[in-house]
Amino acid sequence: MQSKKTFPYIIAEIGQAHEGSLGILHSYIDALAKTGVNAVKFQMHIAEAESSEHEPFRVKFSLEDKTRFDYWKRMGFSLDQWKGIKQHCEELGLDFICSPFSNLAVNWLEEIGVTQYKIGSGEVTNFLILEKIARTGKPIILSSGMSSFEELDKTVLFLKEKKVDFAILQCTTAYPTQPEHYGLNVMQELQKRYEVPVGFSDHSAKMETCIAATALGASIIEFHVVFDRQLFGPDSESSLTITETKDVVRAVRNIARALSNPVDKNNTTDFTSLKQIFEKSLAVNKNLPKDHRLTFEDLESKKPKGLGIDAARFQEVIGKKLNKELQQWDFLKEEDIK
């Protein structure tokens, strides 16, 4: 499904952070190209096709839009503008991913030439748009934010019957998501239940969430981005900044690298020289005469290893007699005992 071979596949979502400004949107693309993410994700809103003046605000945040329908109109771009957006992404080596919210948007995305689709949490049970996308033969990344397993079972069955290649993201539709609602455990449940690639779509505005998801096996990581969390918009408080995005990409890549290189704890060959330095040999802590019978209280351990009997073998020398006189802090060697 992913066009790049890095693991996990990291998607930075601009979403509505552009505030309807094409210039700001392109500024986000430029900034994200320097962070190391694989893909930039957008939302294609065509107000007349997906909404109506009757749609209520989820949160009444807008100071300039009378209705949610007005907001979607302000957030929209023309087909030609979307073609330019995709071209800009590709010129900078970023995959273009977009969530459609209408069948018309799917038509536009097909004309643009997308290689995969992202289904937002609110569209998981929208079988009309799922049918439309399934007919394209393109792979899907499915967010599970508002869906129960009962609902997901129906959607997964539908996609499998249509032979659609898809992945599922654990997602909590709360902005910003609090730790007790992350649902990191759900990733394993999704993988076991549906046997498809799984990942995590984050709205916590915390870097550690994506890092934890990577450690738990997420093959896809998605999060919202914003230039500053104080900016106006419905997702600003639940987004990572550009600087945080750079940091989380670096951390996620490091964790993924660690997971792909399991350590054999029984193989200590890389530490041979260090063990020689840090491990210790037995020594005596006082002047001792010949024929003295060694006790625990006579012994000390000193670096380096190899100049005396290994400190780990101290029990073997207790009760043994010295066959020569030893001075305080002398190493205790095999030939010093009878």
Q: Percent range for helical residues?
A: 25-40%
Query: What's the quaternary structure here?
Result: single chain
**Residue ranges: pLDDT <50 for 5 or more in a row?**
none
Radius of gyration: 31 Å
Order of helices and strands: EHEHHHEHEHEHEHEHEHHEEH
Overall residue-averaged pLDDT value: 92
How would you write the strand order of the largest sheet?
3-2-1-8-7-6-5-4
Assign an overall shape. Answer: elongated
Task: Please count the beta strands (DSSP E, at least 2 residues each).
Answer: 10
Describe the structure.
The protein is an alpha/beta fold. It has twelve helices and ten strands. The strands form two sheets. The protein has an eight-stranded parallel sheet. A two-stranded antiparallel sheet has the order 9-10. Strand 1, helix 1 (22-32) and strand 2 form a beta-alpha-beta unit.
